[in-house]
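Example 241, ligand zinc ion.
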Amino acid sequence: MKYGILSDIHSNWEALEAVLEVLDREGVGRILCTGDVVGYGADPVRCLETLEARHTVMVAGNHDWAVAGKLDLDWFNERARTALEWTKTHLPEETRVRLGELPLVWQDETVTLVHGSLHEPETFPYIFDLQDAQRSLSLQKTQVAFVGHTHVPAAYALEKGQVTRGRARWGHLMNAQRALINVGSVGQPRDGDPRASFCVYDADQGTFEIRRVVYPVETTQAKIRKAGLPDSLARRLERGS
Ligand code: ZN
């Protein structure tokens, strides 16, 4: 079974559409989402409904919970807050309720999903270094966990008590005792590469690959501007920052 793991879509329909096209072409059977479907962009409803229609397994991101009223807006910087307030007024009540019902952590026999870290997931901590990774990996029950939140792809492994940072593009999970993979961001990458980022995990082969796909950034930018959202949210998309 092949899984497509998406994170931080942030209401960017054009990026999501481009990613789903790749997943369909490659016969990816199941879509998993590590949170932040909404926030920042102009297409929250379309992004959420498309993922729901595909029976996507989702966990809550900080933006999802903020829109649902479960996380204080003071948690966010000004432009994020502006976009969240816009999103709140453009989402039907029942949609916001559904976002608030998303769990913080999901796991099956082999895979765990969490937005930030397994360490105090309700506070949405970032995993930036080996120590952050260690805190999450020490609580991880499955061989592999997928996260997002930083908008920067990364891969960590825990082997014989030692945490290492591996190649963030491709890897084999067989030898690693525990693997923690940040899949990057579909709708607002921040690693200097503006292409949408996502992960394909082949559970039979035990391999993962961080993929990038080009999407029409100008269309997304035009929608953000037309919606009256902060212009910097449009500009950052072309830089991937
Ligand atoms: Zn995010």
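Summary: The longest strand covers residues 196-202.
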